[in-house]
Amino acid sequence: MQEDFVLVDKYPEKADVSIDDFLNGNVTFWRFSRLLHQIYQGEEPLARRLTRKLMEYNRDESRERTARKVRNWMHDRNLPKNREEIFKICFALELDEQRAETLLGITVERGIHYRNPRELIYAYCLRRKGDYPEAVKKVREINIPVEKKEMPACTYKENETTAEITGYIRSRFEHVRSEDELREFLEIHREKFGLQHWTAYRKFRKMLNYLLHPSSGDDFLPDEQEYSIRKVVDQYLRMGVPYEKKSGRYTQIQREIKQHWPSAKTIYEMCSGKLDVDRKTLLLLYLATEGEVDTDAADMRSISEHRRRMDLMLAECGMPVLNVHCPFDYLILLAVNQNGEEDFIGYRMERMLRKIFDTNKPAAYLLEK
After folding, report:
1. Which residues fall within 8 angstroms of residue 256, CB to CB, at 6 or more apart?
2. Considering only CA atoms, which of 307, 286, 294 is closest in space to residue 208?
3. Pairwise CA distance, residues 74 & 68, whole Å
4. What is the CA radius of gyration of the chain?
């Protein structure tokens, strides 16, 4: 992340920041409107530019409705409703791939999906300074169907190639510079395309299995009981975050943290492939498993090592790395950085979340099993 995208006043790894700083508002996050101003490099006023371009893209929508939607974004009343709308904003503001990745990563927690042919074509058009209607036309013309495929095994096979990894596809795509090269690239890699993040699914299943089938790690002690998915979610992943869907009584920060928080149902659906594995779930599983390493290892007591491992995991899955401008990511870094603590990282995260959501229930880690 470039320095012009730093969105908070304090870094948890560079300053003495506590959960009280977070709760008292001493840590300031940029809102969607400020991010738009930051990434936009044009001379036309931002709101006018967005309204004008979105009207071109949505000719069936009235000017007043489009203008009202843009005003709501500018006053941080709500966010774009889906990825397609965010891509429209990217084209409207003539963003390059990197800035489009930033906007997508902040608003929907995922950058461009480089194994999705539609988003590949969008990325190519952004690279070539094309506009949204041109990109949609190319999608229709090229028409690479994506079939739903069986989810891969949880672990890599010895003869498995790296061509199935999103990061590999992305690195090869960087060399595409013409429409002929784009068509050739899409044809060569069409068997690798899919809407699901395969690498994320493998890592998800590996960490989840670590919690479902915990081992004592001692040959002289019996293995612990096997857990159900529901018990794993309640024990390790909910962390005191309320289940209720109504969000009217929550602050904006609370809503941002709570959004897309995994439940037993979503974990079941991720396991079956009905839902794609999301970024938040991967990070929570990392905290719950301590990265699947010996928690007494000295090198794992440093924030730099944990952050490196989490960033590597996210990058391999084609997802945005940790950034301090996201409240959820900031809390993770804050939990990791509580040096001298003997507790698990997940326990530290849960204590902070229970303070944020002001629940009186004891932490899950303290409940009798």
Report:
1. 326, 327, 328
2. 286
3. 10
4. 22
Give Cα 6 distance to the centre of its chain.
17
Q: What is the mean pLDDT of residues 59-65?
A: 93
Give me the residue label for tokens 């006053």.
75
pTM (two decimals)? 0.74
> Using one digit for the tens of pLDDT, what is the confidence trace for 145-154?
766 655 555 4
In terms of Cβ atoms closer than 10 Å to its own Cβ (0-12, 13-18, 19+), residue 20 is exposed
Handedness of CA 199, 200, 203, 206 (dihedral sign): negative
Rounded-to-integer distance, Cα 110 and Cα 104, Å: 6
Read off the tokens for 302: 């440093």
Q: Which two tokens stand for residue 221?
A: 């002690």
The predicted-structure confidence for 133-179, as pLDDT tens digits, reads as follows 999 999 999 988 766 655 555 444 434 444 446 777 888 999 999 99
Alpha helices in the chain (DSSP H): 19-23, 32-39, 46-57, 63-74, 83-92, 97-108, 117-127, 132-142, 166-173, 179-188, 198-212, 229-232, 252-258, 264-272, 279-289, 303-316, 327-336, 345-357
Query: CA of 49: how far to CAs of 64, 78, 131, in Å?
Result: 15, 19, 14
Evaluate whether 70 touches 288 at the Cβ level (below 8 Å).
no
